[in-house]
C-alpha cells in the first residue's frame, strides 16, 4: 500500500483516512450484498428488520403508485358478460361496411344471435394504409 501526503496532513493521517474509507465502503457493499441475496437466518435481528421493511412497503405504499392510468369499470355482477375483442377480416365484409353489416358478420362468426357490439369498429391497416381487418368490442 502506498502513502501520500496531502496539504497540511501528514502521510500517516492520509493513510488512515484512505484505509477507513475503503473499510467503510467494503462494509456497505457487503451489507447490500447480504440484503440483496437474503443471507440472514430467521433468528437474527437483520431478518426481522427486512421483514418489517417489506411489510412497511406493502402497507404504506400509496395506491397511486400502482395505478396504470386506465379507467376502472364500475362494479358489475359476476354473472354479467365480459367485453371481448374480436378481429374481423376485411375480406369477409363488403367495402366500407356499416355498423349493422359488421354486427351481422360477427353474429355469423360467433354463432350467437345475442352478440352486441359495444363500440364502433376500429380499422386495422397494413403498412400501405389498406384496411385488412376491423377490431370490434362485443358483449
Structural domain count: 2
What proportion of the residues is helical, as a percent range?
25-40%
The portion of residues forming beta strands comes to: 5-15%
Biggest sheet, spatial arrangement of strands: 1-3-2
Question: How is this structure best described in words?
Answer:
The structure is a single chain. With 139 residues, the protein is of the alpha+beta class. The chain has two domains: 11-64; 84-138. 39% of the residues lie in helices and 13% in strands. It is built from three helices and three strands; from the N terminus they run ααβαββ. The protein has a three-stranded antiparallel β-sheet, with helices on one face. The protein starts with 10 loop residues before the first helix and ends with a strand.
In summary, what is this structure?
This protein is of the alpha+beta class. Helix content is 39%, strand content 13%. The chain is elongated.
Amino acid at each position: 500500500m502506498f502513502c501520500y501526503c496531502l496539504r497540511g496532513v501528514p502521510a500517516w493521517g492520509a493513510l488512515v483516512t484512505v484505509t477507513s474509507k475503503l473499510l467503510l465502503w467494503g462494509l456497505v457493499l457487503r451489507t447490500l450484498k447480504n440484503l440483496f441475496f437474503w443471507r440472514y437466518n430467521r433468528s437474527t435481528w437483520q431478518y426481522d428488520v427486512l421483514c418489517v421493511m417489506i411489510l412497511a412497503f406493502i402497507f404504506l405504499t400509496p395506491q397511486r403508485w400502482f395505478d396504470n392510468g386506465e379507467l376502472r369499470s364500475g362494479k358489475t355482477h359476476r354473472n354479467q358478460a365480459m367485453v371481448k375483442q374480436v378481429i374481423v377480416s376485411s375480406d369477409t365484409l363488403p367495402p366500407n361496411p356499416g355498423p349493422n353489416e359488421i354486427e351481422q358478420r360477427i353474429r355469423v362468426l360467433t354463432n350467437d344471435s345475442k352478440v352486441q357490439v359495444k363500440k364502433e369498429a376500429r380499422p386495422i391497416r397494413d403498412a400501405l394504409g389498406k384496411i385488412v381487418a376491423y377490431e370490434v368490442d362485443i358483449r
